[in-house]
Amino acid sequence: MYFVCRWREESPFSKRVVALPDSTVLDWFRRGWGHDTPEEWISNELGGDVYGLDSIFDEARRQNLPPPGSVDQLRALLHEHLWVEGDDKDDYIRLGEHALRVRTDDDEVDLAYYFIDDEAAASSPDRLAFPLYGSWPLPANAARAGALFDNDVPVRTVRVAGAAGPESVFSVRLSWESPDTDRNLDLVGAVEFVGLGLPQLSAHLQSVEASRVDDVPYDVRLLRALIVSGEHDIGPALQRYARLPGYSPALADLVPVPAADPLPSMVAPLSPQPTESLVHLDTHIVQAARYIDTFFGFDQWFLFDSRWAAAHSGLARSLLRYAAHWDPFA
């Protein structure tokens, strides 16, 4: 079984993935039931703090509650005694036969955590491959030209003039304060650039007139502002992104610079890239884990085309879903 914590983790993916010896979610809760020091036990079991999870174990000890004997009993106990913050506690605690999904917040950012058994992990790669992927970076190999990627996750579509090929590029930015919603779990989904592959993206975006940039999603505007005229690939824009300072980069901080600038950038001021930031550039996927600080850790930006997605369909679909809903089963 696996535990995943989607939070301000120190990992480049801002999540923690832990393998557990238990066969089911029920088994794990039963094993910890009645433990004398729930907070310490959880930290040892799950690799660190999990905000609010100790509350149900504390309440079980305080009320001398018997351990749950079934999934239905565990569900009832979780809904009654597990502490979550939010307007709809019942909707934020979701327990099925093979997975528990919980949403809450720590007064700074939203967070979600999941317990996922082996059966769910094996049967639902389109939902779980990315949440369960623990090591930076994502793989780089891609399918042959003409390979098709069938995507069933809602995305925001952008069509750039002159892009009429069979491929698409997908943009997934995971930030702590999405400019679309001002939250980090209520994301509005990835962006799909229709009709081109990743090697063509930079040139096509340069053709977008500045006066029309307001008509496209925020992340497209941010990416466009990071591209310098004449660049033939998107990698330098991601490298500039990794150098942006602050919790939530704003378009107001991006200004054009003279074309004759020997080190052109669209960012003022542009900080040195923190040594913790990671950028991985390949032909069909580029990915950045931008280091913010010791409190927030990282945010992420992935740009990949349908050739990469066709070679890693589970990862691609689950990553797109990760940007669309806090619950991978939604």
Structure characterization notes:
The protein is of the alpha+beta class. The chain has 2 domains: 122 residues, no CATH class; 167 residues, no CATH class. It contains 12 helices and 11 strands. The strands form 2 sheets. Strands 6-8-7-11-10-9 form a 6-stranded mixed β-sheet. The chain has a 5-stranded antiparallel β-sheet with strand order 2-1-5-4-3. A hairpin with a 3-residue loop joins β10 and β11. The longest helix is centred in the N-terminal third of the chain and has 11 residues. About 5% of the residues have low confidence.
Structural class: alpha+beta
Number of strands: 11
Total helical segments: 12
Radius of gyration: 21 Å
* Average residue pLDDT: 90
Number of domains: 2
Describe this protein with a few key phrases.
330 residues; single chain; five-stranded antiparallel sheet; six-stranded mixed sheet; 12 helices; 19% strand; elongated; 2 domains; alpha+beta
Summarize the helices and strands and which ones pair or pack:
Blueprint: E1 2-6, E2 15-19, H1 25-32, H2 38-46, H3 54-63, H4 71-81, H5 89-92, E3 93-95, E4 99-105, E5 110-116, H6 118-123, H7 125-128, E6 156-159, E7 168-174, E8 191-194, H8 198-206, H9 218-226, H10 235-241, E9 278-281, E10 285-293, E11 297-305, H11 306-311, H12 313-322
Parallel strand pairs: 6-8
Antiparallel strand pairs: 1-2, 1-5, 3-4, 4-5, 7-8, 7-11, 9-10, 10-11
Task: Tell me briefly what this model is.
The protein has twelve helices and eleven strands.
